[in-house]
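Entry for the shared binder. Reason: the reviewer on the internal report wants the predicted structure included alongside the sequence.
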Amino acid sequence: MSTSDNRTNSSDNDEKKMMRRDNERQRRQQMALLNASLRSQLPLESIKGKRSVADHINEAVNHINNMKNKIEQLTVEKDKIESSLNISTNSPKSETSSDNKQSNSVVIRPCWGGMEIVISGGLSGEDLPLSSVLEVLVLEEGLNVVRCASTKANGRLIHTIQAEVDDINRVDLSELQQKLKVSIYDSLMGH
């Protein structure tokens, strides 16, 4: 082998070593960025005094598990509240009417910037007097209705109304729900 071949092999090896070093440096930089991103997502009390990446990963796992448990608990609470608010608007007398209309329901829940009102009932247009609902919301309560959508699902007509409210705490949701139920009932009975 000649000296020029040795130099070529040596320079090839040097280039490979430099490429490996560059790749390893980039990998470490990427891992450092990912670890910093992970740390930024964790509560301060969970990473206080802990410096190793392994500690941060363990704390992240614990944090995720805690959040899952909280989400499950909140979901159960939300379902309980929704089921308690989902009260039928029809009296037993109206359910025995000649056309056996399905019962209507009114659910009001706070949402960002206001409230969402969901009214569901049978598919005939008479079952859900939307005009009387809007009259209560706009004229009587002074709410600003920003969205109203109607859909058909599972044999029922569902109206979803969103209204802006400056301070949701100033609105008695159960009283408003009762007003809407009375308005729907009165409209159905022709009052």
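Summary line for the report: The chain has a mean pLDDT of 80.
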